[in-house]
Specification:
The chain has 437 residues and is an alpha/beta fold. Helices cover 37% and strands 16% of the residues.
Length: 437
């Protein structure tokens, strides 16, 4: 089996791994002299090439060749139909109602009725925190799991935070990417947190400041991942489900899961739903669970996450007013950026068919106006074009200013590549303190 896995790794690239993380980027020739990314593992070599090539597009080139400017022009000749920036929209409440209705139609979320029954698999104290390992059934697929953290000595109700993990081409792990529940941490997660989070388990750190933090596994990561045993034998490419100690097997699984995104996306579209719709539906259930707890102050709930977690913060923050403070990190750009430059670097999880005609990507987060929003970007992030990140900031600033709530929106650009480092974490923590306490 090891030989089969090694052969599989050599033959497969990671062009469809989705939203990448710095754990893949070491010693690669830097992009614009600033980004020391590399892909020593052959699994990631194709993704490295895609990111570098995506960064070279200009006015005469695009990732879809001569069709790029035409395609970008299909949705950029005028403001999207439901953009609050259009002159015909004056009242933010009326706009939000109409735009959210269309947004929900485009997402075509699957129905998950009722509050899931939650089981506490384990409860213990670690490093000043009370930790609960939770499980709930969503009526399809494997049971979902999440990690809940709060100060061990806390009493009464505390503000709540949904902490969203990243994508990073690693579907074997989920909530463990941003938490630490013992001194015996998985070696892949030690490396992951070092590369993307400057060595910090940020969900633990914000919980210590006086919050109930729930980090749920997203679809299809960790507890919600697609199991190879449930796939037809001919589609498994000689692989089997790896155990937690089988690092080579985990890497092989992640490579397989990256390629499987194409099949998953097509199947979900054929089923009449969308990948973002499934993600949002399940995140809403996680929010329901957090809000159902006796120790949570439901008037003060926030969400935050890097990369794929930033994308989830955009969607949930824009859709559900229970989120009083939304902080997407390392995921803010425009649809134009994806059309011309960066679709090669991103997961199928972000795309909502036809929505660009009605809302640009930043305007999804804008649907939460006037509620508090902080966007954290990296100025040398190879997954986005700096010009388009700045355009996204202008759009959001215009929306919040027009609604008379400009002070509730902030965007920061931090130096460096794709990450959620300590300086960004501290800015996010300060924003939560300001908005939720």
């Amino acid at each position: 089996m090891k030989n089969n896995r090694r052969h599989f790794l050599k033959l497969t690239g990671a062009a469809s791994l989705g939203i990448a993380g710095n754990s893949f980027f070491k010693n690669l020739p830097s992009l614009n002299g600033n980004i020391p990314f590399s892909f020593n593992d052959p699994v990631y070599s194709d993704l490295a090439g895609n990111i570098l090539q995506a960064g070279s597009a200009d006015e005469t080139t695009s990732i879809i060749g001569a069709y790029g400017q035409w395609a970008a022009g299909l949705s950029s000749k005028e403001l999207p139909l439901l953009s609050f920036r259009r002159d015909n929209w004056k009242n933010p409440d009326k706009w939000r109602k109409a735009a959210r209705k269309m947004f929900a139609e485009r997402l075509s979320m699957p129905e998950i009725s009722g509050l899931p029954e939650v089981r506490i698999l384990k409860s213990y104290k670690y490093d000043g925190l009370l930790i609960e390992e939770l499980q709930w059934n969503l009526r399809y697929g494997n049971p979902a799991e999440g990690i809940l953290l709060k100060p061990a000595d806390a009493t009464g109700k505390l503000p709540g935070i949904l902490a969203f993990h990243d994508h990073a081409g690693n579907k074997y792990f989920g909530a463990k990417k941003i938490t630490k529940t013992s001194d015996d941490q998985h070696p892949m997660m030690v490396t992951h947190q070092k590369d993307l989070y400057q060595g910090y388990a940020w969900a633990n750190d914000i919980a210590r400041k006086g919050y109930v933090v729930l980090a749920p596994d997203a679809f299809p990561f960790a507890s919600r991942r697609v199991m190879l045993k449930d796939i037809p034998v001919g589609q498994r490419q000689g692989l089997s489900d790896p155990g937690p100690d089988d690092i080579e097997g985990i890497r092989a699984y992640n490579s397989w899961a990256g390629q499987h995104e194409n099949i998953m996306a097509k199947s979900l579209f054929s089923a009449g739903t969308t990948w973002p719709g499934v993600l949002l539906a399940e995140d809403i259930k996680a929010l329901d669970i957090l809000c159902s707890r006796d120790d949570v102050d439901t008037r003060n709930i926030g969400c935050c996450g890097l990369s794929g977690g930033g994308m989830r913060s955009v969607f949930l923050g824009g859709f559900d007013d229970r989120i009083k403070c939304a902080i997407p990190v390392g995921f803010m750009t425009t649809w134009r950026d994806l059309v011309l430059n960066k679709a090669t670097s991103h997961t199928w999880m972000v795309y909502v068919p036809l929505l660009p005609k009605e809302l640009d990507f930043p305007e999804i987060l804008g649907l939460r106006v006037p509620l508090s929003s902080l966007v954290l970007n990296n100025s040398e992030d190879p997954l986005f074009s700096l010009e388009e990140m700045k355009r996204a900031d202008e759009m959001l600033n215009n929306i919040f200013e027009k609604a008379g709530s400009g002070s509730n929106y902030k965007c920061s650009f931090h130096p460096g590549p794709h990450k959620f480092d300590r300086s960004m974490q501290l800015e996010a923590f300060d924003w939560f303190e300001k908005c939720l306490k």
